[in-house]
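Help needed: design a sequence for this.
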């Protein structure tokens, strides 16, 4: 799973269609940066309200931070434009299909931004490989 944040949603839509045409796109969340913040941070270690036994949620970096500068630079079309959108890669999978909850609903608070959406959710249904 990849969390992406950019200023230009049109540029992101074009990028996804070109580079990841099979990608599953979820909802968009609007936000503004807090007055003293230059990063959006995904807080991946919040105590959860729902059980997620036997599910693994593992970011590929120690901190999932996306900078305002990088978000602004993607899709600008000038020499300072970034070729890829800023993102955080997170592995999400059931470690033990027999014991894992059928539905994962994992809350991820947003830090460094002002938004009506205080947290986003990683939601996955267990896909069994049994016939």
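Sure. Designed sequence:
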């Amino acid at each position: 799973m990849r969390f992406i944040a950019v200023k230009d949603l049109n540029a992101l839509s074009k990028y996804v269609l070109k580079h990841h045409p099979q990608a599953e796109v979820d909802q968009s969340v609007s936000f503004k940066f807090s007055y003293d913040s230059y990063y959006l941070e995904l807080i991946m270690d919040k105590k959860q309200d729902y059980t997620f036994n036997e599910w693994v949620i593992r970011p590929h970096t120690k901190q999932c931070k996306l900078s305002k500068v990088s978000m602004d630079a993607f899709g600008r079309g000038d020499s300072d434009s970034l070729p890829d959108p800023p993102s955080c890669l997170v592995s999400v999978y059931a470690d033990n299909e027999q014991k894992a909850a059928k539905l994962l609903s994992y809350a991820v608070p947003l830090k460094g931004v002002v938004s009506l959406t205080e947290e986003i959710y990683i939601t996955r249904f267990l896909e069994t490989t049994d016939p």
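The two ends are 26 Å apart (CA to CA).
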